Amino acid sequence: MSHYVGLDVSVKSVSICVVDASGAVLARGETTSDPDEIAAFIEEHACDPDRVVHESGILAIWLTRELEKRGLPVICIDARLAHKALSGRINKSDPGDAEGLAHLARTGWFSRVHIRSEASERVRVLIGTRERLIRIRKDLEAHVRGVLKVFGICMGSVGRTNMRQRFRDQLAKAGQTDLAISVMADMFNPIHKAVCAATEAMDDELKAIARESGLARRLMTVPGVGPVVALSFIATLDDAGRFQRAKDVGAFLGLTPRRHQSGDMDWSGRISKCGDRDLRRLLYSAATTLITQVRKPSPLRTWATRLQERKGFKKAAVAASRKLAVVMMCIWRDGTVFEPTREAVA
Predict the structure, then answer these.
(1) 164 within 8 A of 196, measured Cβ to Cβ
(2) Relative orientation angle of helices 313-334 and 299-311, to the nearest 10 degrees
(3) In whole angstroms, what is the distance from residue 198 CA to residue 128 CA?
(4) Which among 112, 60, 50, 52 has a CA at the least distance from the CA of 82?
(5) Along the chain (346 residues), what's the average pLDDT of each consecutive run of 10 residues?
(6) SS3 category, 59
(7) If 0-12 CB within 10 Å is exposed, 13-18 middle and 19+ buried, where does residue 145 land?
(8) Reduced DSSP (H G I as helix, E B as strand, rest coil) percent helix, strand, coil of the chain, to 5
(9) Is 15 within 8 Å of 95 (Cβ atoms)?
(10) CA spacing 20 to 30 A to 261: which of 1, 6, 178, 312?
C-alpha cells in the first residue's frame, strides 16, 4: 500500500500526517524538530512511504538533508504555492496543514524546491557576511554625516583606498571644534577601522576562492563580472543541469517581465523579482559596470550602450543583467570562456 506523509514544520515542533493512496488519514501526530523522532514516527506508521513532503522555510535545508540521510524520500516544496492550496480550508491549524501537505504529496500537485549543496551554502555564508559588513560600514558613515550636518559640517566624499582613512581624518578634524563630536570620533574611528579591515579580509578570502575555481575564472572573463558576482552565481544556482535552456535562468532570477493573460487581455508588466534578491542586485551592479566602466569593445557592451540610448539607463541595466546571466549560464554549461569575436560571429 502506498503511503504519503505531510510535515508541517515549526522551530520547536512538527505536525505529521500519513495518508494512503485513497486519501484516508492513517495517522496523525506531533513530535519535536529532531530528525530522529520524525523518522521514528514515520517508520512506525508508514514503513516505506512514497513521498514525505514539507514546505520551504527556515529549517527546510537542514531538515531535508537530515531526513535524506535517514533514507526517507523527502521533498521540499514551494511554500508560496502550497499556501494557495492550503488556504481553501476554513480553519487554519498545524494538523490541518500537515494533512493538506500529505494530500499534495499524494496528488503530486506541488513545485519542488532545489536544495543547494553544503559547499554552495558555505560560499553564500561568506558572501552574505561581506554584504553585512558593507552595510554596517555604510550605516555608520551615514549616521555620522547626518549628525555633523546639524552642526553645519558637511563631510566630503571618500575613496576606497587606505581603508577609508580620509573619512576618519575628516571626522577627527571635526571633533577638534566640539567636545561631543570629539567623543563620537573617539568611539567611532576604532569601530569603523575594524569593519573596514574585516571587509578587506573577506574580499581577499573570496578572491582566493575564485582563483581556485576554474568555473569562477571562466565566468570572470565576461566583462563586468568579478569574483563576488561569479561566486554568487555559482553558489545560488548550484547546478547548471536544473535548467533545460540557458535563457530560463533569467526567469528564475526574476529578471523577466510579468505577464497577465485572460481572454482578450494580454499585457506584460515590470520584472517579476521572484528570484534571489542578492544575486539579482549583484548582476545589476555588473551590468552597470559593463555600461559605464568597461572600455574594452565587445558586441555585448555595444548592445547594452545602444539599448541605454533608446530605453534609458535603468531599463538597459536590467536587460543587461538578464543577458549577463544567460551568457554566464552558457559558459557554465559549455565549458567555454567569453570571446567577443566569437560572439560577433554568432
Answers:
(1) yes
(2) 150
(3) 13
(4) 112
(5) 92 94 93 95 91 93 94 93 87 92 92 92 95 92 81 67 63 72 80 90 95 96 95 95 92 90 83 91 96 91 94 95 96 90 49
(6) coil
(7) middle
(8) 60, 15, 25
(9) yes
(10) 312
